[in-house]
Amino acid sequence: MRDANSASCPDESAVRAAVAARLGYDPFVAYATSTMFAEIWRDGQVYRARIRLVDSKDVTRGARELVQPGERCSDIVDTMALTMSIAIDPLSLATPPTPRLQPEPSKPADPEPTGELPQPIVQNQERMPADTRPPRTPEPDPVDTSAVHLEGAVGPTAWIGSAPDPTLGIIANGLVRWRDVSALVEGRADLPASRALPEATARTSLIVGTLGACGHASAFFACATSSLGGLHAEARGITAPRDSTTLHAAAGGRAGLVLALSTRLSVRAQIDGVFVLTPHRLAVDGQTVYTLPSVAAGTAILAAWRFF
């Protein structure tokens, strides 16, 4: 392809002929696994040429830009032919080029002196590999960690120490992240858990909200958390069953790992450890039948979606 300032440059057929002369055969066919693009344009006192090799998946396999000083654009054809021949067939460098047919001159003329091809000024030193190398798999676009973005996540959780027996629940949270820090808002609801005691059956359920501040390093993260909610307790199997709800407060930490499935979808695995700041005991007729531990631990697997 030529611009308006390089209309006097050799056209496509001339470049193809020069490449065929160097290789000894015409490598250009209508149907091929790779495509060679060549551009020529005038830039001040020099001519420039850009050559790209693109495979069938539209992935650029190599590129090179050439610069040829002087007023004659035709001087750059041999340099382009050499570069394109090496990209198509690296072994062609060891084979002397086939002389190109020249039109008969109107009168005898002295042959032009032969010598080494002019050495181009190479601006892009990227090596153009042979076409036998398998194409690289395009990588997903990287996430821009310099901007503020919002994530939402939901998933199941399991806890011990927050009820008479291990219990399951569900977590939903939102996270606002900027660079390597984030703020967390979360809600958690535990399913009822019960334990049979000599005096009665104790049953509890828990609903809490959590605030957290987190730091991120690659795929890992750690948070400081504080929680506040309500613990509902029941006593069954006695003459006068009772239930009540009391304040539940806890503080602790969280550590986890993020597995990115795409630029927006990811999976989080996390573990929590908290100290219960409001000790709880279950009493029947004024007698303590069970005391909840002052330390609780939990784990969760969440599916997370990045909104922006």
Task: List the topology elements.
Blueprint: H1 12-23, E1 34-43, E2 46-55, E3 60-69, H2 75-88, E4 149-160, E5 167-178, E6 181-190, E7 193-196, E8 201-217, E9 220-236, E10 242-260, E11 265-276, E12 281-284, E13 287-291, E14 295-306
Antiparallel strand pairs: 1-2, 2-3, 4-5, 4-14, 5-6, 6-8, 7-8, 8-9, 9-10, 10-11, 11-14, 12-13
Helix pairs in contact: 1-2
Number of strands: 14
The biggest sheet, with number of strands, parallel, antiparallel or mixed sense and barrel status, is: 8 strands, antiparallel, barrel
Cα distance spanning the termini? 41 Å
Overall spatial form: rod-shaped
Summed up, the domain count is 2
Helical content (DSSP H or I, runs of 4+): under 10%
Which segments are poorly predicted (pLDDT under 50) over 5 or more consecutive residues? Answer: none
Instruction: Report the portion of residues in β strands.
Output: over 45%
Q: Roughly what is the average pLDDT, rounded to an integer? A: 80
Q: H/E order of the elements?
A: HEEEHEEEEEEEEEEE
Structural class: mainly beta
Major sheet: order of its strands?
4-5-6-8-9-10-11-14
